[in-house]
Amino acid sequence: MKLPNVKTIDDLETIKVLADERRLALLRMLAKSKTVKELSTALDLPQSQLYYHVNLLEKHGLIQVVDTRVISGIIEKHYRTTAHQFRIRNPMLMGSSITNAETTAIFSSVLDETKEEMQEAFRKAPPRTTDEPPLHPFISRKSVRLTHDQLVQFHAKLDALIKECDIRWEENVDTEAEEYSLLVAFFQADSGDKEIDDGS
Fold it and tell me: Do 48 and 80 fall within a single domain?
């Protein structure tokens, strides 16, 4: 079964389902087909604690049954995500419909997952012998001052880069091209005056 690359989540109830760290963890694990028993073993949790979350993910179209087997008279379902990636509508656009705690849970999960993947990428990376691109893994944090017009243009460039990732995925999905990850976080920084310790 060929999965779509990206599925956009823009309804409030599904976003609220995702605003739970355990369900987000299950969603990451179900990028490959697994049973509830396998999830239970990996998380060291009783299956009874997972069925509720798995059923919610299935109900809201985030995972699906991809195989069913009968083992010793027991029906065993294999679940998998319904897309390779999920794009969540910015919770900040939903106002009071979604709580700060739910918004924080979504953002925290993305950052935690990225941190784990970056640590693994740095661990596996061979010694760097050049500063010429392409360089990976790498991480960079910048601050920039922008006028309103520059902000609009800058945001459009970021949006185009994100969309290019989706295009390249579709182009290369059935090739031997290697997979890379990109995280984009863009926000207005606290513009309050900051004290700088000059060491004196």
Answer: yes
Letter for the amino acid at 85? Q
Maximum separation of any 2 CA atoms in the chain, in Å: 75
13 burial (CB, 10 Å; 0-12 / 13-18 / 19+) is exposed
Closest CA to 57 of 9, 23, 108, 33: 23
Are 124 and 145 found together in one domain?
Answer: no
Asked if residues 64 and 80 have their Cβ atoms less than 8 Å apart, the reply is yes
Q: Residue 111: what residue type?
A: L
Do residues 158 and 186 touch, judged by C-beta distance below 8 A? yes
- Residue ranges in the chain modelled with pLDDT below 50: 193-200
Going by C-alpha positions, the residue among 119, 121, 113, 111 that lies closest to residue 185 is: 111
Residues 6+ apart with CB under 8 A from 25: 43, 109
Q: Work out how many domains the chain is built from and give that number.
A: 2
Asked whether residue 1 is assigned to any structural domain, the reply reads no
User: Which residues of 15-127 form beta strands (DSSP E)?
Assistant: 63-71, 74-81, 85-88
Positive or negative, the CA dihedral 16, 17, 22, 28 is: negative
CA 145 to chain centre: 28
What is the sign of the dihedral through the CA atoms of 70, 72, 73 and 74?
negative
CB atoms within 10 A of CB 12: 14
CATH number at residue 32: 1.10.10.10
